[in-house]
Amino acid sequence: MTVCVKHLDGRLPVAEIVLARSLISLVITWFMLRRVGISPWGHRKSLLLIRGLLGTAALFCVFEALASLPLAAATILQYTYPTFTAIAAWLLLGERVRRRIGIAVLLGWLGITLVMQPEWLGSSIVGLPSLAVSIALIGALFTALAYVCVRELSKREHPLVIVFYFPLISLPITLPFLWHQGVVPLGMEWIWILGVGLFTQLGQIWITKGLAILPAARASSIGYVQVLFATIWGVLLFAEPFDGWVALGALFVLAATLISLSSRQTTALKQPS
Fold it and tell me: In 10 A of CB 49, how many CB atoms?
């Protein structure tokens, strides 16, 4: 999804990309709900509404950051959200932060620091716009709060219902922004917009199912692996710089993911059959 947004190169307004993503996701999810015979309106409508609002705010921030920052940097900043998720789940849901997950989160932050290459590392990647960095971090906070809502909603709601409310809320919010800012997509932009909608839909379904199975902190720390993908795509598709610090940071991120997975396996082994 992030690769598709990056290919749009900032020509289309962020609200227009959010609108297209929401419309595609809404149609697909509606047909999937009809196929399995489930009502799309859910039971906990207030929390579903809050989840949609938080997700929409996060999406605006993420797309804006992707338009202003290198792909790897924008994704890495977005992936500060597992720490916010762990804290929010502890404060709001009472979920215990296990030692392994704490270690995974710390390793993930260390990896993120190395990939960002701050000045004290002698970095070649400096001068990122502070406003864009702040927007990316705010997006990470909104993402964390949205995932905590998903974790709570998954106790009663079907994953498709949770996914459905995201574009249902996003769609009317984005329309006013396009009244004077709409831009007609050209050529390949139609393909990239379609990719944003399709890949987001797949990601939302599997993330929602994962959060229904795993505690929020563990599930989001596994998500650090996206940092590796963003770094690889950034190098291969957008010629973004890659050096030893980035490689070391990527290894720390991978270690955080493996620790999260091993924690899940250990828990599963301890459960009675």
Answer: 15
